[in-house]
């Protein structure tokens, strides 16, 4: 279940729902220096996009990652719009995916960064994302042509019931969690894959930025290092949320600052019961194996 593989994986299936159109990768032309940032979702994706953007553009405070680093497999806008726009980019491209590996076209040319996070923290952040979404968000996901499967419903107010439903239904109303983590964890020994953990990044953000720079073979301009670090902090991102949140935050009541939430872990501790946590932890071991489950719960720096 947590086997290390040595060969590049192959695409085995398509993935469709109210969010996804995985076929976009079938027609994507990779370049030698492409970067793909992958997560299940609400695991530090936007944060990592900001880090990569700041490294590529040398600490430029005006860089708008929400515009230049698209979620490729999101079905809106359609691939007929998205692919030409990405092809026209002249800078080093850094793209986002929430797909499991077997629904993705995996290129040995590209470099992949995967960020993991405890599923309880993921769902606390996801609830904020979903509960505060406005009608424009629901309309875009549910009413745009090409949706496969049922529409996404509104989120209940109770976070515990939201988590319990997600755990019991293998990821509804979003997508399966365990297979996403498992599929990327299995690639961790590949030379073009870097696996990070949200909590490790939070404990030592400058160290994480250095690690990403080394992996991407980006030489850091030390004169710009303080600006790079500043622009990757949650306080700066929250204050400049319209440059970081997808589409400037127009899909959330309260704006982009709702999307760039707290960046903290453990908020579930006061609401989940001991039985809830025991069930989640047992499922993590069964689905991921002990090593991956331990890493997912706390990262490597605990």
> How would a crystallographer describe the biggest sheet?
4 strands, parallel
Using the alpha-carbon principal axes, give the shape. Answer: globular
Query: What value does the Rg take, in angstroms?
Result: 18 Å
Beta-strand percentage range = 5-15%
Q: Report the helical percentage.
A: 40-55%
- State the end-to-end CA separation: 24 Å
- How many beta-strand runs? 4
Mean of the pLDDT scores?
92
The helix/strand class is alpha/beta
What strand line-up does the widest sheet have?
2-1-3-4
Topology order in helix (H) and strand (E) letters: EHHHEEHHHHEHHHHHHHH
What labels would you give this structure?
single chain; 302 residues; alpha/beta; four-stranded parallel beta sheet; 4 strands; disordered N terminus
Written overview of the protein:
A 4-stranded parallel beta sheet has the order 2-1-3-4, sandwiched between helices. It is an alpha/beta fold and 302 residues long. Helix 4 crosses helix 6 and helix 14 packs across helix 15. Helix content is 42%, strand content 6%. The chain has 15 helices and 4 strands.
Concise overview:
This protein is of the alpha/beta class and 302 residues long. It is built from 15 helices and four strands. It has a four-stranded parallel beta sheet with strand order 2-1-3-4, sandwiched between helices.
Question: What is the strand and helix layout of this fold?
Answer:
Blueprint: E1 35-38, H1 45-56, H2 65-68, H3 79-87, E2 94-97, E3 111-116, H4 119-131, H5 135-143, H6 159-168, H7 178-185, E4 193-197, H8 198-203, H9 205-215, H10 225-231, H11 234-239, H12 241-244, H13 256-259, H14 274-288, H15 290-298
Parallel strand pairs: 1-2, 1-3, 3-4
Helix pairs in contact: 4-6, 14-15
């Amino acid at each position: 279940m947590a086997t290390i593989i040595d060969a590049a994986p192959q695409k085995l299936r398509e993935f469709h729902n109210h969010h996804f159109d995985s076929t976009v990768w079938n027609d994507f032309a990779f370049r030698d220096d492409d970067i793909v940032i992958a997560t299940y979702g609400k695991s530090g994706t936007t944060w990592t996009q900001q880090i990569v953007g700041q490294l590529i553009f040398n600490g430029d405070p005006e860089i708008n990652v929400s515009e230049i680093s698209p979620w490729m497999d999101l079905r809106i806008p359609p691939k007929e719009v998205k692919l030409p726009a990405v092809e026209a980019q002249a800078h080093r491209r850094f793209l986002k995916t929430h797909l499991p590996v077997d629904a993705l076209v995996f290129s040995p040319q590209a470099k992949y960064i995967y960020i993991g996070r405890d599923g309880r923290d993921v769902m606390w952040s996801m609830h904020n994302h979903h509960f505060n979404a406005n009608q424009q968000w629901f309309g875009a996901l549910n009413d745009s042509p090409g949706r496969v499967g049922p529409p996404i419903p509104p989120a209940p107010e109770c976070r515990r019931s939201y988590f319990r439903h997600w755990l019991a239904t293998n990821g509804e109303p979003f997508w399966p969690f365990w297979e996403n983590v498992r599929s990327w964890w299995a690639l961790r020994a590949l030379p073009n894959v870097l696996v990070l953990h949200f909590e490790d990044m939070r404990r030592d953000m400058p160290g994480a930025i250095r690690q990403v720079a080394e992996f991407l073979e980006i030489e850091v301009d030390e004169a710009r290092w303080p600006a790079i670090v500043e622009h990757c902090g949650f306080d700066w991102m929250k204050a400049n949320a319209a440059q970081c949140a997808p589409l400037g935050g127009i899909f959330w009541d309260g704006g982009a600052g709702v999307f760039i939430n707290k960046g903290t872990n453990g908020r579930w501790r006061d609401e989940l019961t001991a039985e809830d946590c025991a069930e989640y932890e047992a499922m993590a071991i069964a689905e991921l194996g002990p090593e991956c489950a331990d890493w997912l719960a706390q990262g490597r720096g605990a």
